[in-house]
Amino acid sequence: MIRVKIGVALSGCDIGGVAAYSALQEIENQGFEIEMVSSSGVASMSGAMFALGCEEEIYRQAMDSFMADIRTDGMDTAIYNLSQRIQNSPQTRKIPLAINSVNMADQKTVTFTNDFVLSSQTVMTYPLQELYDAFSASISQVEGLGYYRFIGYRLCDYSILHGCPLYPLRMQGIKHVVSISFMPERLSTPYEAMAKKIVDQSALGADWHLTLRMPANKSPAEYMEWVSLQVNAFALGIKATL
Question: What is the CA radius of gyration of the chain?
């Protein structure tokens, strides 16, 4: 059977983004071949683990540790520890990956990737060498973080200003583009409200879009199970349209 190739954009502002690995896994289980993952926000971390081929058990342990680190040491330490864990873990494959952020001063997109190079007035790419830099830039504005300084930029979550990170997928000529956004079940901050508005608008550029309104106060394992069920139904719906 021929596997339909798709690109997947991950975005949103909810901590439930730790389950992005499970979303991608479910899409693949439904018979799709993921050509590229483009991400922003918390989903960048678990999405990267999938794209880099980290085994599921390592992913589950890493997300448990990440959530525990947030509670005890704060988001910045949690991001650093997770970055080190991923870089020191065996990686069994490599799906093309782009982790996106935006510069607060001029709204320029800064993308960390090893799969294409671009330098323009609106977009700049940098090699995806230090996961800590890419994750910190993409997640800033979450959990009280302001912005992340990176070689003269002040970087924050791409979805605040540009919504779904579709451009790397379209630029690479991927025919079928799927967008998945992780949002709180109840919006409680201006940041969350702004992100949802922009994501909803930009999602019109995807071929299929799913907004996951994440239940509050779940463990990583509970988020993974819940997301798998939602994405299973979503992927079956996509298959029915092809």
Answer: 16
Q: Which residue bears the tokens 């800033």?
A: 140
Name the 3-class secondary structure at 40.
coil
Please state, in angstroms and as integers, the Cα–Cα distance from residue 233 to each residue in 27, 209, 219, 236, following that order. 10, 13, 22, 5
Strand ranges in 83-231 using DSSP code E only, listed in sequence order: 97-103, 109-113, 123-126, 148-150, 153-157, 177-184, 208-214
- Tens-place pLDDT, residues 61-115: 999 999 999 999 988 999 999 999 999 988 877 899 999 999 988 999 999 999 9
What is the value of pTM for the model shown?
0.94
Q: What is the pLDDT of residue 73?
A: 92
Distance CA 124, CA 233 (A): 36
Task: Report angle CA 102, 207, 177 to the nearest 5 degrees.
Answer: 60
